[in-house]
TrEMBL record:
NCBIfam families with a match to the protein in the record: rmlC
PANTHER family named among the record's database cross-references: DTDP-6-DEOXY-D-GLUCOSE-3,5 EPIMERASE, THYMIDINE DIPHOSPHO-4-KETO-RHAMNOSE 3,5-EPIMERASE
Keywords assigned by UniProt, alphabetized: Isomerase, Plasmid
Source organism superkingdom: Bacteria
Family: Belongs to the dTDP-4-dehydrorhamnose 3,5-epimerase family.
UniProt site (Participates in a stacking interaction with the thymidine ring of dTDP-4-oxo-6-deoxyglucose): Y149
Assembly description: Homodimer.
Broadest EC class assigned to this enzyme: isomerase
GO cellular component, one term: cytosol
Lineage: Bacteria, Pseudomonadati, Acidobacteriota, Terriglobia, Terriglobales
EC number per UniProt: 5.1.3.13
Keyword presence, Repeat: no
Record-linked SUPFAM superfamilies: RmlC-like cupins
Name under which the protein is recorded: dTDP-4-dehydrorhamnose 3,5-epimerase
Length: 200
């Protein structure tokens, strides 16, 4: 994690934190505490647009998982999805992998601990594989997507693909609990990948 930048979007302040993957961002919305608790504008279309991030999301998903569950690494072909991920309760280790051929970060991954105790969002653009491991008793994960669910385009890369060398924090968790579908995931070398990276 490198540079921290603060952008002003009207009255609202969003801290944008660069990550080892140039197009993946951690976002910390401003919180307004008072004697009742706190308030925050977690997402505004115009604020995101001012940051060069998508203004429109078409779907919001929530999943609940118990400790040791690993979902991923998922992406969609045909109708791609950018994802804005937030943890409502519990703690996960969230992973993004750049799958865009030609990208400077192609084949690179980054992992982030996200917890319901912090107001933090992770922005993962189209063309990335996404997955997470639940490291707390349970976790509620909420994410908006820029594209609709498109089952025909669903793809999965194995969480344990040795070419990716993802350092999942599995200490004390043992073998992760994955779905039957994820167990049939592809190795990246054999996977049908998203469209090539387009430099901005
Ligand atoms: C993802 C999704 C699933 N479903 C259904 C299909 C299935 O019956 C059930 C569970 O689906 P899955 O096993 O694919 O759910 P899950 O393994 O949680 O899939 C999700 O994983 C994370 C890591 C992502 O990044 C998401 O984009 C999505 O791929 O929910 C929908 O109706 N809409 C959706 O958008």
């Amino acid at each position: 994690m490198t540079i921290s930048m603060v952008y002003l979007c009207d009255h609202s302040v969003m801290r944008v934190i660069d990550t080892p993957l140039q197009d993946v961002k951690l976002l910390r919305p401003k919180q307004y505490p008072d004697e009742r608790g706190w308030f925050s504008e977690v997402f505004t279309g115009k604020g995101f647009s001012a940051l060069g991030l998508p203004e429109h999301f078409v779907q919001e998903n929530q999943s609940y998982s118990s400790r040791g569950v690993l979902r991923g690494l998922h992406y969609q072909l045909g109708k791609q999805q950018g994802k804005l991920v937030r943890v409502l309760s519990g703690t996960i280790w969230d992973v993004a992998v750049d799958l865009r051929p030609g990208s400077p970060d192609f084949g690179q991954w980054a992992g982030f601990e996200l917890t319901g105790d912090e107001l933090e969002l992770l922005w993962i653009p189209e063309g990335f594989g996404h997955g997470f491991l639940v490291t707390s008793e349970s976790a509620n994960v909420l994410y908006k997507t820029t594209g609709y669910y498109y089952p025909a385009g669903e793809r999965c890369i194995r969480w344990d693909d040795p070419s990716l060398k993802i350092d999942w924090p599995l200490e004390g968790l043992g073998v992760p609990n994955i779905s039957a579908k994820d167990a049939t995931g592809s190795y990246m070398s054999q996977a049908e990948l998203p469209p090539a990276y387009l430099p901005k």
